[in-house]
């Protein structure tokens, strides 16, 4: 049996192993396409209340807290002051807090922002596109994304000031 | 090569008496066909599988790679793999798979529907059998087995068949299943020259070497199984490739009438340009359904227009520029199909969805009409003018309700109960104007007591009315159609794989490789013939050839009876 035959065998076995690993990995990990903790945060492209289009990559290099909310969701409304307070505390240390409103119109969100005195950037997702790519179910859902763009933690449910503070501290340390 | 008497037991002697050196594992000498192994020597009729050549995996001192190769090269292993896969895939059919539901929680659903057995089924992961790691691994192993089994056999077989020698060993000829031996008068070479055109006429390719002859036809049928395997491998790879991004999509989407909706991950928008549904009349219903108040749809159809987005597709700040590419009336089993993007009718909802209302501002006392304003339900603007009056939208609720603290709130993001709070300024009004609440839906006007609220806001008396005067002033989506959007770019490859497989099957099933060897030694003709199928046909052909040569033999007598009693 010649050397060329041996290398053909090795190439074929290697190809089978690679295809096998790929196939098994795609069904085990990437099945529903919903991002999980430890994975890269998906991109978004949304209109902000400032009239500008904002994308995920625009905040690269900053630790991000991405909060999905709506005025029709009482716990979302309740946690707004905590988010605002933490934004004021952490913004100088390169932490950005982004609120993504789900499914509401400009007027509603504008009134809400004016009434509650929220200053951190608010984006609108009227067609629920970001909701789908982030796989958001019940609200509020908050994604803690590291400066390198990895999802550090996903929080489903209302946040209070101290847990939010701890979570952001952990996020900043995670890098 | 000199071999001592003792080395015989250690190394199998693979050198044939004709002088050809055969690889380890050879059953019949590659050159002359003489049986080499004791087992072959003992056979009354030779086992002709793979023409007796050594398979690739048969070698002395296999290493690790050889061992892996040998494992997959075994047909026995392949059959076990196929059996396990068969059992595995049948397990997946006991209860419906999770993927067949649009929105269920498997951890609850299976227990509810099928009890404890259902829950165990779910916990074992059988609710996702076909996307489980073990099932995919089995498929990959079958694929590996297909490739390796084929290569292990097809290459030696190809070599053996393309390098066939014409003279064969006497024991090779006499141990074929179809054999004739008899005397011929004339010279061997001359007889062979005479029989050549006769055999050729039967469609054989004939080669001669002195007093020996080899005739062969439809050799390509031997490649049938391997072509089938190539087809299966293409098929399998295409199925795996569906997991690549962009090659496969299967989504259920809602399309309210009159609005282009973006189809995710594509540059297409689809608009429901009208939806029609026809119901069975009471008379048409089968007897079991009569008088039960059941409403069954007879036919439903979505008039769909497909657009391609040319600019501003991902820009949320601008309207996308859409170009119509096709339109089609989608019915059940009549999907829209545009360059591999398919839209199937799936469901519908006849609940109308308000898009905008255009009420007129009226003086409540005199009935004077000041002007019409257009209010969007989805995303209203701030400023409106009705005659001399200026209306500023202060607050807007899509689904009006009262919160825990009595404040007005949105109950959801759906336009279930739209409510507008205006500041109206103009003649005969106080400087800062008055506030006015407007509920477009009559049911909400009554539920939330619009007049009472407005009286309170105006400080006693309601001065204005916002009133929709006719249906032409209401814009709404009459219905929503649900379509199943599918893209399957791997499908052509699946068809190609299936086609190649079919070609292989036809080659293997409907054509037979037939070979006739003959030699003439000192007036004795020895003929052996072999085929992989339809021995009767081969026997008849041989007897016809012999008959034309003046040798009359009964077809049945050509059967090799060596070793059997009959």
Automatic annotation (TrEMBL), chain A:
<dbReference type="GO" id="GO:0016209">
    <property type="term" value="F:antioxidant activity"/>
</dbReference>
<keyword id="KW-0201">Cytochrome c-type biogenesis</keyword>
<dbReference type="InterPro" id="IPR000866">
    <property type="entry name" value="AhpC/TSA"/>
</dbReference>
<dbReference type="InterPro" id="IPR017937">
    <property type="entry name" value="Thioredoxin_CS"/>
</dbReference>
<protein>
    <submittedName>
        <fullName>Alkyl hydroperoxide reductase</fullName>
    </submittedName>
</protein>
<dbReference type="Pfam" id="PF00578">
    <property type="entry name" value="AhpC-TSA"/>
</dbReference>
<dbReference type="InterPro" id="IPR050553">
    <property type="entry name" value="Thioredoxin_ResA/DsbE_sf"/>
</dbReference>
<keyword id="KW-0735">Signal-anchor</keyword>
<dbReference type="GO" id="GO:0016491">
    <property type="term" value="F:oxidoreductase activity"/>
</dbReference>
<keyword id="KW-0812">Transmembrane</keyword>
<keyword id="KW-0676">Redox-active center</keyword>
<dbReference type="GO" id="GO:0017004">
    <property type="term" value="P:cytochrome complex assembly"/>
</dbReference>
<feature type="domain" description="Thioredoxin">
    <location>
        <begin position="35"/>
        <end position="173"/>
    </location>
</feature>
<dbReference type="InterPro" id="IPR013766">
    <property type="entry name" value="Thioredoxin_domain"/>
</dbReference>
<dbReference type="InterPro" id="IPR036249">
    <property type="entry name" value="Thioredoxin-like_sf"/>
</dbReference>
<keyword id="KW-1015">Disulfide bond</keyword>
<dbReference type="GO" id="GO:0030313">
    <property type="term" value="C:cell envelope"/>
</dbReference>
Automatic annotation (TrEMBL), chain B:
<dbReference type="Pfam" id="PF05140">
    <property type="entry name" value="ResB"/>
</dbReference>
<feature type="domain" description="ResB-like">
    <location>
        <begin position="75"/>
        <end position="428"/>
    </location>
</feature>
<dbReference type="InterPro" id="IPR007816">
    <property type="entry name" value="ResB-like_domain"/>
</dbReference>
<feature type="transmembrane region" description="Helical">
    <location>
        <begin position="133"/>
        <end position="155"/>
    </location>
</feature>
<dbReference type="GO" id="GO:0016020">
    <property type="term" value="C:membrane"/>
</dbReference>
<feature type="transmembrane region" description="Helical">
    <location>
        <begin position="77"/>
        <end position="95"/>
    </location>
</feature>
<feature type="transmembrane region" description="Helical">
    <location>
        <begin position="223"/>
        <end position="241"/>
    </location>
</feature>
<dbReference type="InterPro" id="IPR023494">
    <property type="entry name" value="Cyt_c_bgen_Ccs1/CcsB/ResB"/>
</dbReference>
<keyword id="KW-0201">Cytochrome c-type biogenesis</keyword>
<feature type="transmembrane region" description="Helical">
    <location>
        <begin position="493"/>
        <end position="511"/>
    </location>
</feature>
<feature type="domain" description="ResB-like">
    <location>
        <begin position="442"/>
        <end position="542"/>
    </location>
</feature>
<protein>
    <submittedName>
        <fullName>Cytochrome C biogenesis protein resB</fullName>
    </submittedName>
</protein>
<keyword id="KW-1133">Transmembrane helix</keyword>
<dbReference type="GO" id="GO:0017004">
    <property type="term" value="P:cytochrome complex assembly"/>
</dbReference>
<keyword id="KW-0472">Membrane</keyword>
<keyword id="KW-0812">Transmembrane</keyword>
